[in-house]
């Protein structure tokens, strides 16, 4: 099979502009199977970290075409970018490259590759591998990572075997942290016929500190330290075994008790936080862009009317949702960006709980006796939030039916462009990065599937937004750029096409007596590059 990335592949494996932004990034799969028993009794093995990941490991492992939470976390241990970023601060540091760019406002950056960098099969890393990777990312068939590069990156050229040049369309200082998305892949491996399909299925050959040694979909993925690694963040333990357990109760059980098999688990349910703390575990949350959003079908009346979309947001009792469903681990959205983001500012329209305003907007729009079928993914925390939406809408006279369902099933319907009214789902672009331009391009991009799902692509309002985003992306003056970002964030808030209801914390638990060097992430997955067994 050629490297062409089909729409069916997109829905199955990827996500920044379509189904997998949620399928992969939020839970990666709703159907994680039983955990491997391969590391039973491993709790006392100081050479092994056993982790429990609350997302499936059976989505794509192709770094250029995945938003899978499990795969992306694993990829960060297996592959390197020219630059990589700290998992928490997101500050860039040289990885395969030897230095950070000296002039962030230059229109081309040259990078020299690290001496002695090797692939896990022993072959040397070369400039040809870098060019090969970026040609795939910038290619016409790339519907995922390409959205984060194509607006500003013109081409990547080979200077010599150890040097490459990135040529920009205009100065783009945010490119430095964004280069971590572009994990460099070996040309001699992945240029072979059928190799991209193998990558989707779990084949990995990287240059990073860990190499994959076993991959069992719906069960576990295991890693070993790569002896040939000579980069900045070497492996801190000899072996890792990551179990995929989507079922919350089974995941919590793996890390509970004195004889717990695992030392760390992510995606901890809010209801189990205190229980685990009482057992002596550290449980911390990461606040970021993880959110539940509502998306409306603007091709179906009355959702083509901005007043109706706004009314339905004003009607939701978000504090009740945070108190009851999220156990206090959430914040009502006051912008598309989460509070705490460097570019956050309260939007021109903030959907504070105001049922009377909601009723007035519906009346102004001439809408009466509205009945809504709200389709939603059946992720536990999303499902917990749905009753609050239903009761809030019923309170303003909107009859509401809830239809939670398997994630893949829901987006299969969306892909067929079946008629629908509204969808509640979740996403978290912080997997890819932090800057506002990247976050908006996760959902709002010309030709993107999210925009097609909302029937908003090609409208005058959509074109206006994309022009505003382009203008901000080209601005190099920081103050002016921030102003332009706030301008388009205001517009996104007003339009309420695909917009957050609440931002929530993601909880990670670990045993401090058995593992150190852990920091809770504000996006799905874990990073163990600096973790050690104690």
Automatic annotation (TrEMBL):
Gene Ontology terms for molecular function: peptide transmembrane transporter activity
Family: Belongs to the bacterial solute-binding protein 5 family.
Species the sequence originates in: Nonomuraea solani
Cellular localization per UniProt: Cell membrane
Solute-binding protein family domain location: 91-438
Protein name, entry field: Peptide/nickel transport system substrate-binding protein
Record-linked PANTHER family: D,D-DIPEPTIDE-BINDING PERIPLASMIC PROTEIN DDPA-RELATED, PERIPLASMIC BINDING COMPONENT OF ABC TRANSPORTER
Lineage per the UniProt record: Bacteria, Bacillati, Actinomycetota, Actinomycetes, Streptosporangiales
InterPro entries the UniProt entry points to: Peptide/Ni-bd (IPR030678), SBP_5 (IPR039424), SBP_5_CS (IPR023765), SBP_5_dom (IPR000914), TAT_signal (IPR006311), TAT_signal_bac_arc (IPR019546)
Keyword Signal: yes
Chief location category: membrane
CDD domains assigned: PBP2_NikA_DppA_OppA_like
SUPFAM superfamilies, alphabetized: Periplasmic binding protein-like II
Xref: Pfam families: SBP_bac_5, TAT_signal
Annotated GO CC locations: ATP-binding cassette (ABC) transporter complex; periplasmic space
């Amino acid at each position: 099979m050629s490297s062409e990335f089909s729409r069916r592949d997109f829905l199955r494996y990827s996500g920044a502009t379509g189904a997998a932004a949620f399928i992969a990034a939020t839970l990666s799969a709703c159907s994680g199977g039983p955990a491997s028993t391969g590391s039973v009794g491993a709790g006392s093995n100081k050479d092994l970290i056993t982790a429990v990941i609350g997302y499936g490991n059976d989505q794509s492992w192709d770094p250029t075409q995945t938003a899978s939470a499990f795969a992306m976390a694993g990829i960060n241990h297996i592959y390197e970018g020219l630059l990589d970023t700290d998992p928490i601060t997101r500050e860039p540091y040289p990885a395969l490259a030897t230095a950070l760019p000296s002039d962030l406002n230059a229109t081309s950056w040259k990078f020299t590759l690290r001496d002695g960098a090797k692939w896990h099969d022993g072959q040397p890393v070369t400039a040809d591998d870098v060019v090969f990777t970026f040609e795939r990312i910038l290619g016409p068939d790339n519907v995922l990572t390409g959205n984060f590069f194509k607006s500003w990156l013109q081409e990547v050229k080979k200077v010599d075997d150890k040097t490459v040049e990135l040529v920009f369309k205009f100065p783009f200082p945010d490119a430095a942290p964004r280069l971590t998305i572009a994990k460099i892949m070996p040309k001699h491996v992945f240029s072979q016929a059928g190799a991209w399909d193998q990558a989707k299925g779990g084949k990995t050959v990287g240059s990073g500190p860990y190499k994959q040694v076993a991959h069992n979909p719906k069960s576990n993925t295991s890693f070993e330290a790569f002896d040939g690694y000579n980069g900045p963040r070497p492996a801190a333990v000899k072996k890792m075994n990551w179990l995929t357990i989507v079922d919350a109760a089974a995941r919590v059980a793996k890390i509970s008790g004195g004889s717990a098999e695992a030392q760390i688990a992510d995606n901890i349910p809010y209801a189990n936080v205190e229980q685990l703390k009482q057992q002596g575990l550290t449980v911390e949350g990461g606040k970021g862009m993880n959110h539940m959003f509502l998306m409306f079908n603007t091709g179906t009346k009355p959702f083509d009317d901005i007043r109706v979309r706004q009314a339905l947001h004003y009607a939701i009792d978000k504090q009740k949702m945070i108190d009851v469903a999220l156990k206090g681990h959430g914040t009502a959205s006051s912008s598309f960006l989460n509070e705490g983001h460097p570019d956050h500012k309260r939007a021109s329209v903030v959907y504070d709980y105001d049922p009377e305003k909601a009723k007035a907007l519906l009346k102004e729009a001439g809408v009466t006796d509205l009945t809504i079928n709200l389709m939603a993914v059946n992720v536990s925390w999303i499902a917990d939030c749905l009753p609050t939406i239903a009761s809030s809408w019923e309170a303003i006279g909107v009859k509401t039916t809830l239809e939670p369902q398997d994630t893949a099933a829901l987006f299969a319907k969306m892909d067929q462009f079946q008629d629908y009214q509204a969808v509640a789902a979740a996403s978290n672009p912080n997997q890819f990065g932090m800057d506002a331009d990247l976050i908006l391009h996760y959902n709002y991009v010309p030709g993107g599937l999210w925009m097609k799902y909302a029937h908003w692509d090609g409208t005058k309002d959509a074109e206006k937004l994309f022009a505003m985003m382009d203008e901000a992306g080209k601005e190099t003056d920081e103050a002016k750029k921030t102003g332009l970002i706030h301008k388009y964030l205001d517009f996104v808030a007003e339009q309420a096409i695909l917009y957050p209801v609440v931002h929530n914390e993601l909880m990670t638990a670990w045993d401090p007596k058995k593992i150190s060097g852990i920091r809770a992430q504000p996006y799905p997955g874990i990073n163990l590059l600096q973790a050690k067994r104690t």
